[in-house]
Amino acid sequence: MMGGFRDSQRILHTWSGLIVGWVLFLIFIAGTAAYWREELTRWMQPEVGLPADATTAAKQAQQFLARTAPDALRWSIELPDSRSSATTVNWQPKGEKERPRGQRNLNQATLDANGTPVQVRETRGGDFFYRLHFDLHYVPALWARWFISACSMLMLVAIISGVITHKKIFIDFFTFRRGKGQRTWLDGHNALAVLSLPFHLMITYTGLITLMTLYMPWAVMAGYPGGRSALFAEISPRVEKVSPSGIFAKPPELAELLHYAESQWDGGRAMSLRIDHPADAAMRIVLSQDQGDRIASSPGLLVFDAEGGLLQATVPRSPVVIARDGMIGLHAARFAPTLMRWLFFLSGVGGTLMVATGLVLWTVKRRTQLPDPARPHLGFRIVERLNIGFVSGLPVAMLAFLWGNRLLPVELANRSDAEVKVFFYAWAACLLHALLRPARRGWVEQLALAGVLALGLPLYNLVAWHGGALSALAAGDGAKAGIDIGLLLIGAGLLWAARKVHRFVPAQRKPRAARTTTPAEAGA
Prior knowledge:
Shape: globular
Order of helices and strands: HHHHEEEHHHHHHHHHEEEEHHHHHHHH
Strand order of the largest sheet: 3-2-1-4-5-6-7
Helix content: 55-70%
Low-confidence stretches: 513-524
Structural class: alpha+beta
Largest sheet: 7 strands, antiparallel
Distance between the termini: 40 Å
Strand content: 5-15%
């Protein structure tokens, strides 16, 4: 009975993983890269050096906006921290409507550590990978999130059924047989699965929690009579809009408000400031807390008037909202210090490789069962080529995206969109290449190309950006240097993988022994 149950779970594990395996690989590899989204954005804007501290940045931003847009309807200030690159300021002139989210704002500036505007290249930076892993970019956001939710649910099914299927999974974790074809891939898949099993369960479950109001709205409807709008009103309190009074007033010193906010947030820091009607006595100054201060993801909020008096503060949240925020914060890991972030990142790499080895294992196992392994049927060839186009093609596309950041003209219109197009063009080329080349050559060529692209970026930076990682280390900029060093390690790993695939000699299938005819059968 148990054997039959395990067999059913094995089939469930295989097909729940295979059907959405390519999408899961995209989710894992893009989400893993997004753990360094701020550092990637900083690396992708090499014109900016180390940031100023938040208090100094707030003073500089206020002085800049007072000179540049004194009569604007709104000022917005994004403050730097140890991970971000610089201070970003935006303003909305009178008579201009607020721009839709995602549309480029021309009324903005980037300030360096001295408060001086600096021309930086337009880029989505690490935010592209972050959004890609749950929005899929070109797909309408609602449909993309429904699709990602379904794939994540199948991922959870695959994890649980995989644990049930492998009754010796923890014993097999300590067993790795090299050069054994299917057995080697299975050993590697098991080891990667067990090594990061708590992480895989956590990241999949919390990923589902982030979108739960989309596909399971009934609990929200039961707990909040106003539905999702009432829930989000508690999660993200809105600041009431006010009309200008027509009486001139000078904004209070923003640096002083930052110190007050730190005392209210037990040492937490402000992530951003917004000043509505900055030259009017009816102004409202809104401070949002940095989400990296705690696991719960929803930021605190403080609202001040023109005299610096506190008008509104975030009310205590319900246990349900705190639990939900904690799940999302644990998934995004914005709270994680550097060492813990590395653990999240390495666990994400393990999950990415787990999905990749599972996809490859399917083809390795079934090739030996084909009547003619040298001439597989069409369905097998499609799966095999998709494996190449995703598992090795996506790293090529991600690295091409970084090369686009370096090589596209800085003054190019809609430059950030052009970088994204480089990513998708490179990925499409890899999928086409996988269809046209023999399987082994496709693996070797794409893995080798990804390795060369990864190794080339730090070398290019050495020449084009005043010493690259070396100068960044000398200046104490660990974020920029870390990306270059990481690219060197990734490039070496990809070239090693290409070499192993190139030198691999598949085991020859043993011919079946001829069946001996017994005397009784001969007589019959």
